[in-house]
Write a structure and sequence with these properties.
seven-stranded mixed β-sheet; Ig-like_fold; nine-stranded mixed β-sheet; 17% helix; Immunoglobulin-like; signal; binds calcium ion
Length: 744
Amino acid sequence: MKNSLGRWMTSVLAALACSAAAQAEPGSYGGTVSGLDLMDVDMMFIGAHPDDDGGVTATLARYVLDGGHKATVITLTGGEGGGNATGTETGRALGLIREEEERRSLSMVGVTSPHFLGLRDFYFTLSAEETEKMWGGQAFVCDVVRIVRVRRPEVIVTMWPGPGTHGQHQMATRAATLAYNYAGDAKYCPAQLKEGIVPFTPLKLYYYPGSAADATVKIPTDDISRTARIRYADLKSIAQFNYRSQGWDTTNTLPARAANPETFMLVGSRVPVSEQETSLLTGAVTAGTSPVGVRLEVRPDSYEIGLGRATPVQVTLTNGTKLPMAALRVNLDTPTGWRVTGSSPARMLAPGETYTAVFTVTAPADAKAENMRLTARYTATQADQQILGRNATFVRPLPAVVATFAPTFDVAGYQVFARETGTEWVTGSLATRLPLVVGQPTDITVNVTNRGTTAASGQLELKLPPGLTLVGSSQYQVAAGATAQVRVQLQASAAALPTGRQSALLPVSLSTGGFTDSANAFVLPSLTIPRLTTEPKIDGDLKDMAAGADGSMGPEDLWWRTKPDSAADASNAFKLGYDDQYLYVGMSVKDELVACNIAPNDVKAQLRSDAIGITVDPTGQSRDTSTTLQAAAFPCTTAGFQARGFRDADANQGVMEETAPGMQVASVKSEGGYNIEFRIPWAAMPTQPKAGDTIGLNLVMYDGDQADARVGANISQSGLAWSSFSWGGKQALPYLWPRVTLGK
Ligand SMILES: [Ca+2]
Ligand SMILES: [Ca+2]
Ligand SMILES: [Ca+2]
C-alpha cells in the first residue's frame, strides 16, 4: 500500500505539472497586430490515408461549416498504396492526387488546412509492427505530437487500433492516442521545446468504433446543414465525390443513398462527459452542465483488479475557470455490491486549484471478469449556479487464478500498447488467434497467473467445437504470485470444417474456476506436394500437371464480398508441384463469364477483375508480407486470352518480367471457364525453402461477371481462397495461410 501511495504522489505531481503547463501562455500565434490565431483548432482528425476522414465528414460539416468551430486533419501518408481509378499514376504521383482529393473534400466542409506527413503508404499490410519498421520507428509519433502542440485541438478523433485492421490505421490510431496522452507532457518529444513549442493537453479522444456495440456517441446526418441547405448526408456525399481515384465518384449520389449517423467511441476524457453524449465538443469546447475549464479525471491503480481486494482510485478535479467553485463535493459510484471508501467534505476550490481525492473500491467475490464502470461525480456552486459533471473509467475484476491463451505476436504487441496508454478496457478481453492445421496436433501455450497467496493446481477446462480435440493432459500447477506457461496440444480434424469449406474460424474457450478466456481457432488446410520429375510446360494445358497434389475451392470458401451462385459461377480445382527451381500451380477454373477488361499496360491490382492470386511464405514463419512473394495473374486482357502475371501486395510489386524473372503464366479458355498455369521461381522469393520444408501457401480466386465492363474498372464481386478468412486473413496474415510441405 505504501508503494502504491508513493506512486499516487508522483502521478499527482505529474498531473499538477501538467495542468500548470496547460495554463501557461498557449504559444504566441495570436500576438500580432491583427490578433489572429491561425493555428488554434477545436478538433483534429488523425488518419493514415486520404479518405480515412470519411467517417467524420458530416460531423466536421456540423461543427466547422455550421458551428463556427475550427478543425484540421493529419493524414500520415499520401495513400499511394491504394488503387487509381482515374489514371495510370502510381507511387508518389498518386499520393499527390489523393492529397488533393482530400483537400477538396475537406474544404467543402470548412476544413481548409489539413496536414500531410508524407510517410510512405507501402503495399497492403495488416501489421502494426511492419508499419513501424517501414516508417523508421516511432519518430513519426513526435511529428504528430508537434502538430498537436502547434494546432491545439481540444478534441482528437482517430481510427481503430485493434489488430486485424490495416497496419497503417493501427499506427495512426496509436500515434493519436500517444499524442492525446503525452502532448501536454514536456518530457515527451522534448527536443520540440527548443522550437519554442509549448506542451498542449488535448481534452477528449475518440476512436472510430471497432463494432457497432463500441459506439458511444452518434452524430446524425439526416438533418439539414444551415450553410449548405441540404442534409449533412448529402453534403458528405458531395464532399466525398472528390475521392475519385478511389472510385467514390461512382458510388456517391445526390441525394445520398443513406443518411446513417456517424458514430464514435469515447476513449479518453480529461473533462466531465455526460452518460449519453450527443456532441464530441461538450465539456471541452462547449459547456454542458459543467463549465468549460473544469477538468475531472478518474484513474484506478490498475485496469485489472483482484476480486475482494481494495484498489485505490484517484479522482482529480481542476478548476480551470476564472471563478471559485463553492461547496464542492466529489464522489465515486461503483456497480451494485461493490464497496467504496473515501469521501470528500464540502470545500471551496479556487481558480487554478486542483483537488485530488483517493477512494478505494473492492469488487465482490462474484463480480464478473468484464469491464466494470467507475463513475466520478462532482457538484459545486459557481456564481450561485449549480454546476455538476461526471467522468468514468473501467476496471476488470479478476479471480486469483486466471488462465489465458498466449497471444500471437500481433495481439501481444497491441496489448503492450494498450497497457502503456491506459486503454486496455477499449478492446476488453481481445480474443487471441490460434492457427491449427487439419490433421496435425498443434502446441498451444496457456499462461496461468496466480495472484493469490497459496499455490494453485488443477485442470484447464477447454471448450472445443466438434472436430477439435485436446491431446494429452491439461494439468496446471502454479506457485503463489507466479505465472506458469502450460503447454497443451490441440488436434483439428476435417470434421471441424463446415460443408464445402477448406478452412474454418471456430470459437474456443478456456476456463479455470470462474474465469473464462476466449480465442478464435483458425483451422487451416495442409497438403504435401510432390517433386515433379518432368518439368511441366506452361501453356495452359494442365495434362502435364497430372502428377501434382490436388485441391479445390468453391462458393463456400468465400472471404470477399458476395457468395457465388453456384460452382459454375466461381470455383476451381488445382494441382500443386515443385522442383529445384520452381513452384508449379495449375488451376482449372469454372466461371461462366470471364471478363477481360484490364489493359495489357495496366497489369496490377488483381482484385479489380477475374484473377488468380498465389501467396507464398517460403519460411512458413513470416510475421507480415515483407518476407513473402504474392504472385497474381489476369487470365486475359483487352488484348485477348493470354494470361499476364505480376506481383501484387508484397514488397516488390509489378509485372513479373521485372519483379520475378523466370516466372511464367499461361491460360486457355475452356468450356465454362479457363485453365491457367503458373511457374514461380524459388529464386524470386525472399528465401528459398528446401525439400521437406513446410511453407505457407494460399491460393485466391477473384470473380467479376460484368460483360460490358469499362476498361480498367473494378468489377470485383467475389473472392474465394483455399484458406479463407474475411478481411485481410487470406492476403496479409501469412500465419493464416495453408501449410504446404515440399515432399521429398
Ligand atoms: Ca502445361
Ligand atoms: Ca462468375
Ligand atoms: Ca468472371
